Amino acid sequence: MNTKSLLIDTATSLFQQKGYKNVGLNEILKACNVTKGALYHHFPNGKEELLITCLQGLNEAITTDIEAIFNRYPSAEDAILSMIDKLVHSFEQNGTIIGYTFSSIVSEMATMSEPVRTACNALYENLQHLYCKKLLTNGYSDESASAMALLLTASIEGAMMLCLTQKSAKPLKTVAELLPSILKVNN
After folding, report:
1. How far apart are CA 157 and CA 142, in angstroms?
2. Under 8 Å between Cβ of 183 and 148
3. 105 near 15, Cβ under 8 Å?
4. Is 42 helix (H, G, I), strand (E, B) or coil?
5. pTM of this prediction?
6. What is the C-alpha to C-alpha distance for residues 23 and 102, in angstroms, rounded to an integer?
7. N or C: which end of the chain has fewer CB within 10 A?
């Protein structure tokens, strides 16, 4: 793995686990066994630029993962339930939701940095777009699909945060249980 990829992968993991403010540059450098010069070579604007790159990488990874799941299921309901099942499995296996959790970064940084807020917003907009697109293929009107995509994003993201704080997969399981009736009402 090249130095830039190592920095991004390591920082992404640390930011997700500890939050942006609780991860210092020295911790990232030590975990990667690289110098400050190497970090600034790849990220001249430092830690914030590295965070934005991490968020962009998360956006790509989440998109790829969700699209793969959605392509396997013609039904929006089955696709979304499969995605939630994957999140539940990840949480039960790892005690966290690897690769999907960025809400802590949003709450910590969105009001402090416009470029970070913009990168976080792009993640949420992308999630909503993916949900909306799948719902449209299942016969939802533009308006219903857009509203449901917002509800799905808020519900699933909120449930992930609750799973982490409660140390239980129950919030995601509850969303999965309620989702079929909600999807039917709005279609």
Report:
1. 22
2. yes
3. yes
4. helix
5. 0.85
6. 14
7. N
